[in-house]
Design brief:
Blueprint (H helix, E strand, L loop, with lengths): L1 H6 L6 H19 L5 H9 L1 H4 L1 H7 L7 E3 H9 L11 E4 L4 E3 H21 L8 E9 L2 E9 L13 H14 L2 E7 L2 E9 H4 L2
Parallel strand pairs: 2-4
Antiparallel strand pairs: 1-3, 4-5, 5-7, 6-7
Length: about 200
């Protein structure tokens, strides 16, 4: 797995390689904590290219040594699905909230895996589909809703959780002490997250 990750940085300059390699090492450590099966590791191998968005999230202009902003992180994750604008296909709204440097990777991973699943099977898998992400801050928690529409009709929860869903849930609950809930509605997935603000700021 490490060899696959490190191979993805070929062609970058020396300082670029050091920065990317550091982020990929963090990602490798997080994956190693998840006790993945051989099948899940194979899925990870097949989807490795898309994981590089984690590096984009951590090296984007909105990221610095102190962390990021929640809205900038969501915008970065949704950008590949926006079709050139955030007015229809992939939209978001909510107050600005600081995200600490340690939390950025876990959050980007969870959001990106959810977006990847939406692009494969949900609201972003059809031309007329859409995703709407909203959040607010109440008390000591940030509450997020990921609402999909216009995708294939959903008959019910999947028979087994896919790699992306497992990784997203473990990133939020296991690494940030948050909660994740999936509501598989016929018109589209409604995913909710609740994350302690103290952990968000780490």
């Amino acid at each position: 797995l490490q060899a696959l990750l490190l191979a993805s940085i070929d062609g970058r300059d020396y300082f670029g390689k050091r920065k990317v390699a550091k982020q990929l090492m963090i990602f490798t450590d997080k994956v190693s904590e998840l006790d993945l099966s051989a099948e899940e590791l194979q899925t990870l191998h097949e989807e490795l290219d898309s994981r590089i968005i984690l590096v984009d999230c951590s090296t984007h202009p909105h990221q610095n040594a102190q962390g990021s902003q929640w809205d900038a992180l969501v915008r970065t994750v949704l950008a590949p699905y926006s079709d050139g604008g955030f007015d229809k296909r992939a939209t978001y709204a909510g107050p600005s909230a600081p995200v600490g440097a340690k939390a950025v990777t876990s959050l980007a991973l969870a959001l990106h895996e959810t977006a990847t699943n939406a692009a494969k099977y949900g609201g972003l898998s059809t031309p007329g589909g859409a995703v709407r992400v909203t959040w607010d801050i109440a008390g000591d928690r940030l509450h997020l809703e990921w609402r999909e529409s216009g995708g294939p009709a959903i008959a019910g929860p999947p028979q087994r959780k896919g790699f992306g869903s497992v990784l997203a849930q473990r990133s939020i609950s296991g690494q940030l002490g948050g909660e994740v809930a999936y509501d598989w509605r016929p018109e589209g997935l409604l995913l909710t997250m609740a994350i302690p603000r103290a952990r968000l700021a780490e």
